[in-house]
Amino acid sequence: MTTYSGSGVSVSWRHDGHHRTRPSAIHGWLTKLRGVLTFNSRTIRRGNREIGDARAYHEAKRISRQSRGHHRGFFSMFGSRRHHGEPVVVSSGSGRRRHRHHRFMHFHHRSPPWHHGAHLRFWGWLTRNRRHVENGLIMREVAWKDREKERRRRRRRLRHDGADIRTGAALKRMESRR
């Protein structure tokens, strides 16, 4: 960290030359939006990272308040706003998050969302660029096909899981009768 002190003013920078402030989710969303509009994936990642850092910062701040015994005041008698059964997920310094692993209905491949390619189509419509509009339509069509494939995969997996459950239950009944 570099520090400059001159004429009674002290300013500190990180090594990349930016002034260090606390992370802001709104600034992260704006950075992400700027990256989407300019088709810059690095800026999108930077915005996502700032959003995650802001979540982690606020969560750490909340936990430190709780550890100090900070109360919400008069309205604390009405209970917590958060459900206690939900796990708290805090991002680490690298920005990765812990995910809960579900046993069923988890696939290695995730299809793109239904609106995939809409930004490119909209950008082409704004700039009157037919190639962008066509590419957006192609991306959307590919996303729809991929989503249909995933739906079929889910139905097939659900059928197999149901059959396994029924077969297992039938085997247990047969063993208990012996």
Describe the model:
The structure is a single chain. The protein has a two-stranded antiparallel sheet with strand order 1-2. The chain is flat and about 85 Å long. It is 55% helix and 6% strand. It folds into 2 domains: 70 residues, no CATH class; 66 residues. It has 178 residues and is mainly alpha-helical. The longest helix is centred in the last third of the chain and has 48 residues. Strand 1 and strand 2 form a beta hairpin. About 11% of the residues have low confidence.
Descriptors for this entry?
single chain, 178 residues, mainly alpha, 2 domains, 6% strand
Please write out the topology:
Elements lengths: L1 E5 L2 E5 L11 H13 L3 H27 L50 H10 L2 H48 L1
Antiparallel strand pairs: 1-2
The largest sheet is: 2 strands, antiparallel
Question: What's the count of strands?
Answer: 2
Number of contiguous helices: 4
- Multimeric state of these chains? single chain
Overall 3D geometry?
Answer: flat
Q: Point out poorly predicted stretches.
A: 82-92, 96-104
As for the number of domains, it is 2
Instruction: State mean pLDDT (0 to 100 scale).
Output: 75
Give the strand content.
5-15%
Helicity range of the residues? 55-70%
Adjacency order of strands in the biggest sheet: 1-2
